[in-house]
Amino acid sequence: MPAPITPEDLYRFRWIDHVRLSPDGDRVAYQVGWADAASRQNRSRVVVRRLLDPEPVDPTAGVLRDHSPEWSPDGRSIAFVSKVGAADQLFVLDITTGAPPQQLSTVLDGVGMPRWSPDGEWIAFLGAVLADADGVVDDPRPPEGREQLRRAPVARVVRRLDYKHDGRGYVDGRYHHLFCVPAAGGEVKQLTDGAWDVTDFDWSPDSGRIVVAGNAEPGADLQRELNLYLVDLDARRVRLGGGFYLSSPIWSPKGDLIAFIAPNGLDVGLLERLWVVPLAGGGPRCLTANFDQAVNDSVINDMRSGHTTRVAWSTEGDRIYFPASGPGVTTIRSVDLDGNIREDAGGRRRIYDFDLASGVLAFCASDPRSPGELYMLTKSAEARVTDLNPWLHDRYIAEPEQQFFTAPDGWRLEGWVLKPQDFDQSRVYPTVMEIHGGPHAQYGWSFFHELQVLAGMGFVVFYMNPRGSDGYGERFRRDVVRDWAGKDYIDLMSSLDQAIERTGYIDSKRLGVGGGSYGGYMTNWIIGQTDRFAAAVSMRSISNLVSEYSQHDIVLWGVLQLGPPPWPDLDELWRRSPIRYVKNVRTPLLLTAGEMDLRCAMSQSEELFGALRLLGKTAELVRFPEESHDLSRGGRPDRRVERLKRIVAWYEKYLGTASAERPAPEEVTQILPVPAEAPREWAKTVAITNRSDEAAPVYEVAAEQEVAPEPAPVEAAEPEVIQPMVPEFATAEAPIVEPEALPDLPEPEEPPAEAAPESGPEAEPELAPIVAEAAPVTEPEPEPEPVVEPAVEPEPLPAVAEAELVLESEPEPVLAEAQGEPEPGSTITEPELPAFDEPVAPPPLPEQPEPQPEPVGAASSSAEPTAQAAPDVSATLVAWPTGAPAASPENGAPAEAGSFEEATSVIPAWQQTDPNADAKRTVSLQAMPPEEIASGAGFAALLTFESGPFAGRIVALPNQMVSIGRAPDNDVVVGDPATSGHHGRIEVRTGSFWISDLGSTNGTLVNGEPVIEKELSDRDLIAIGQNTLRFTLEA
Length: 1035
Description:
With 1035 residues, the chain is mainly beta. Among the domains are: 86 residues; 127 residues, no CATH class; 151 residues, TolB, C-terminal domain (Neuraminidase); 260 residues, Alpha/Beta hydrolase fold, catalytic domain (Rossmann fold); 93 residues, Tumour Suppressor Smad4. 10% of the residues lie in helices and 29% in strands. The chain contains twelve helices and 54 strands. The strands form 13 sheets. Strands 34, 35, 36, 37, 38, 39, 40, 41 and 42 form a nine-stranded mixed beta sheet that branches. The longest helix has 19 residues. The radius of gyration is 31 Å and the shape is globular.
């Protein structure tokens, strides 16, 4: 039996990148990286070989870090970058002579991105130099060791927003600028200067000028747009144009056009598109305006860091080649100057780098079984050139199974499942749902070490692309902007529900959830809304959108994602902040973070951990010194291994890894005619209950009363209504639990409202989380079951607001129009040159037609109706805890395989315990504090069953989300065969009640009209399965 993949296998991987073809297309150079266990460093070397040779030539073998090879125009030499001491420097190797490489640069802070001039006389590169001397007070003492560039400064002086960049660290007055050096060696010339960064550049075909991208204008730190400048070899600079968030400028072979990548606007979430601007005058023109895929590689894994996008002109200058992000894939496509696009290399894989020369297309691609290999394509024939990881052939690699899901509003969603080795369809397995970062990244057909380790441990791994992911068009991608924890949360949870119901092998009592960056934010959010997960891992995450708003390294990007700043009104950001719901959390949480993460600040993990521990909850924080946001992809190898070991150990502790016997399957939803009327019976109504973070308090007035037997029905009595069980901290005095029922926050000058008084001085005991599991509807028990503890709170949907924060695939912004402080003077002259015509604004892109949701057929829709016992009409069915605490471990208690106690499917009628209570408005003494009971507080709304098997029942709705369906983990359980297991939800959005259908078999009707999502009005009539329910708002 093949051995599973383990965290320690990180040291065995070989990663290929930066492929470059020689001008004749006969040879190829690329870099191969690996994690060195002995030195605990990431290393790489440059490989040069003929494409058809069986063995590579290793001209730079044995060094610490060689990378970024580039061929000279004559194909005789290679420029590359190599680490010398603490910084990278530029080298040139003549591959025809066998002489050692020649070092061409000695820039103190290091260099990168070498580019040959077309005539082969010069090499341009970027180097970091001190351009704002007032921005830092350096320590004059020499470094403490060879690996240290300089000592930490005496002081950092910050006057700009762009004073730090994740992965690069603090700017300390140093910016990236353009240099050039003779290819044969000689004096290095600095061509740009000032307190701004050159982000990319390219040579003109005549080798006389260089086009650079950046923003050298005043107040650039408050502007998101970048500009194109033309710089000659005498350091004279002319602004060509701008107004775009642009990247990857590249000069056409004829010299008449410059192509670049940019969205059609400065807002976030817009697709990156390919543009050309003529140098003879006129504005830029978009070549991919009608192509609903981004010009980038947005598929993520943990094998490669970096987010640059390569584009290349054909030799004739008639086409431009670029990567395109489709659904779960990255392909190579090309477009002609009329906007006609074709696919040149595709398939179920991620193509992350490429080059072309003399009719040969070479590219690096990863698929689910490989971290990355080199391929060549010529004359429509493709061949794999390398096999860098042959040891993987003898390991178990879980193959992703593609699945599609239907969102409540009809969108078709894509996801995948990895199964453990020796998978048995008849058993159930602990399952981990992984959530990607971004949010505008995507999972896809690529090798993911972390996910394979989890599958090798025995977990089913479920991952999907919710709203906001790239690859599915611009509208889908933008749907999450200023709506974090909105539709994306619904997509994740509804897709998980569908996967559980469809597959049958996911153990709903042993669910884990985890993610990094934005996925870490979503993990933190989810465990504050539901306790269905028994373990959670939140990596490099966000917990407080208010405190994170202006402290990360891409503030302007965050402003556009999150909306207006929280000064003075923090309602919307606070509403979407996971830490707001920390008292709800019962899921054991592992937090991991890099101490030099400047994207999702270390303080975000510290805030959440501190709050959880102050509340006595199970949480652990693992800090990784010196590591940035890219720890999982490019951190120090031993820390990457430790991180993986911590993650899998956490899931193993709280979920277990063994499979278990599958419980009896839930009956298939029957497609039955819904009767117009059913006999009314004025029986007791059982209410929806909220999960509390502590055991429901039993007040003294209730403790002194005996539970009386249920009285005989009185003919003229009104049906009794039972108040939903709301924990004390969710009431109006301390509204910390419910995301929808937000209080009016006081003005800054007003004193804060007092919190509700505690019911007792003792610490709040934690209850066992009650995890959801579908169970068959059974005959009612002859005797009522005792109520042991409050029922599971529904997973509340967040109120829609403008929120969000940082992502890992979005490039760093340079920033919104404003006048800043004067920039430090440039030491390079900028004489007046004839300026190019300013590009005019491009015509508006054709409006994309609103996509029609692509439905996914329900597997249950063709099932034959089955005989079923008549439903018991003596009680409304609701979610209710069983009496076995072992089935639902407390926060921090490991779960055991096979601990499946069937959920009670029929709950006896609620019995009044207060003989003095008003029979027409009965409230549970355990549901509310005594003072609220005495005040006669009302309900938000009521659902009255008017016809069907449960006619006469009344359910009181709180100001929060409730779920309706046949499965016993719903808040309102409607046990008739025409109702789906998870049929629909009712939630509060900005003060109004909304109903959503969750892809049910028979649909949901409001006033006779089928709906997917609809705002409810007073007296609306809702049809669900065989039941009609009247919705009424309470005064």
